[in-house]
């Protein structure tokens, strides 16, 4: 059953949970009020997404099993996106898969994506080209001919506009079938006729290091981690890990780990029962013992005090009062701030 919707977020935890084709952890990279908008359209086989994010952010994650996904920037003249240490410019397409990835975007970012099941993509690719899809290296962006990329971006923009202004049109099977057919044809041509950007030797080495780094983080998702234990566990010197993190994350590992700990604290505060725990207990559990400095830094990063986060205790179940409905909209327009 086709569906569509537009969602607005003021909380990164709720935002990352809204993605349907990918499992990610998203960390805003600077202080400031978080805001993002996400438009989603579900067709018979294809899912189309569009997003605008105000703050720079880092995300780690992977596409969900048995899905093929493709991402691209949707606005010309915006800063490049860093995908696993490789620069992705407007006009490039990233082929995502189920391997772990690091991705970094700048402020005021507009991006789009489309995904479908791996089996459907393989079958459709074979039907269009007459041969099987030879999977391109996942960290190598593809730059299609400009006329094909323009066609993809125009088709994406038209679909997003329909979801925002005339969602009832997307309930017609004939419209969905035509859009889906056009999307499949243009993405296949973009992949087969585009030029692949190769990764440097240094980039490949950094990528292997970051894969081990991320695997260690993934094995310890809910506790604070420190640089010395990570270097020992993954067998990499601090200087080498620092160079890889600077290339892929845009920051040193110590800063990234500190930022990660603050976000772990916030998640713990938002999910805790205020009657059963305290800010002090949660802060200490995450390695913050200078509570005065912690409170000041927390407020600067999240624009609220730790005690305010605890009192608000994030409830991921949406209430009717949180939903603003549009007539004939298959999915409601929602403002999520927990």
CATH architect. name of the largest domain? Sandwich
Shape: globular
User: Which fold name is given in CATH as the topology of the largest domain?
Assistant: Jelly Rolls
Q: Specify the CATH homologous superfamily of the largest domain.
A: Jelly Rolls
- Please describe the biggest sheet, giving its number of strands, its sense, and whether it closes into a barrel: 8 strands, mixed
Strands side by side in the biggest sheet:
9-6-11-4-3-1-15-14
The CATH class name of the largest domain reads Mainly Beta
Count of runs of 4 or more consecutive helical residues: 11
Low-confidence stretches: 314-338
What number of structural domains do the residues give? 2
Approximately what portion of the residues adopt beta-strand conformation?
15-25%
How far is the first residue's CA from the last residue's CA?
29 Å
Number of strands: 15
* Radius of gyration based on Cα positions: 21 Å
Order of helices and strands: EHEEEEEEEEEEHEHHEHHHHHHHEE
Report the helical percentage. 40-55%
Average residue-wise pLDDT: 84
Q: Assign the structural class, choosing from mainly alpha, mainly beta, alpha/beta, alpha+beta, or little secondary structure.
A: alpha+beta
């Amino acid at each position: 059953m086709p569906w569509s919707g537009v969602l607005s977020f003021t909380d990164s935890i709720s935002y990352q949970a809204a993605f349907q084709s990918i499992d990610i952890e998203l960390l805003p990279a600077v202080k400031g009020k978080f805001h993002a908008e996400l438009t989603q359209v579900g067709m018979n086989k294809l899912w189309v997404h569009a997003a605008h994010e105000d703050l720079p952010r880092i995300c780690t994650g992977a596409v969900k099993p048995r899905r093929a996904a493709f991402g691209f920037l949707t606005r010309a003249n915006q800063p490049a996106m860093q995908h696993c240490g490789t620069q992705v410019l407007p006009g490039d397409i990233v082929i995502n898969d189920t391997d772990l990835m690091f991705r970094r975007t700048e402020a005021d970012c507009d991006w789009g994506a489309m995904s479908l099941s791996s089996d459907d993509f393989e079958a459709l690719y074979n039907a269009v080209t007459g041969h099987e899809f030879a999977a391109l290296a996942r960290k190598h962006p593809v730059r299609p001919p400009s006329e094909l990329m323009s066609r993809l971006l125009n088709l994406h923009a038209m679909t997003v506009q329909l979801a925002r202004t005339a969602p009832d049109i997307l309930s017609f099977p004939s419209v969905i079938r035509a859009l889906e057919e056009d999307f499949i044809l243009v993405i296949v041509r973009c992949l087969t006729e585009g030029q692949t950007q190769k990764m440097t030797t240094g980039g490949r080495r950094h990528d292997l290091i970051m894969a081990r780094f991320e695997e260690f983080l993934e094995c310890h998702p809910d506790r604070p981690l420190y640089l010395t234990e990570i270097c020992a566990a993954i067998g990499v010197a601090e200087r080498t890990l620092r160079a890889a993190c600077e290339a892929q994350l845009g920051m040193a590992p110590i800063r990234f780990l500190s930022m990660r700990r603050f976000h772990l604290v916030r998640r713990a505060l938002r999910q805790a029962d205020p009657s059963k725990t305290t800010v002090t207990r949660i802060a200490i559990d995450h390695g913050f013992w200078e509570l005065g400095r912690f409170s000041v830094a927390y407020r600067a990063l999240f624009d609220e005090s730790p005690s305010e986060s605890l009192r608000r205790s994030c409830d991921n179940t949406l209430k009717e009062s949180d939903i603003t409905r549009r007539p004939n909209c298959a999915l409601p327009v929602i403002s999520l701030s927990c």
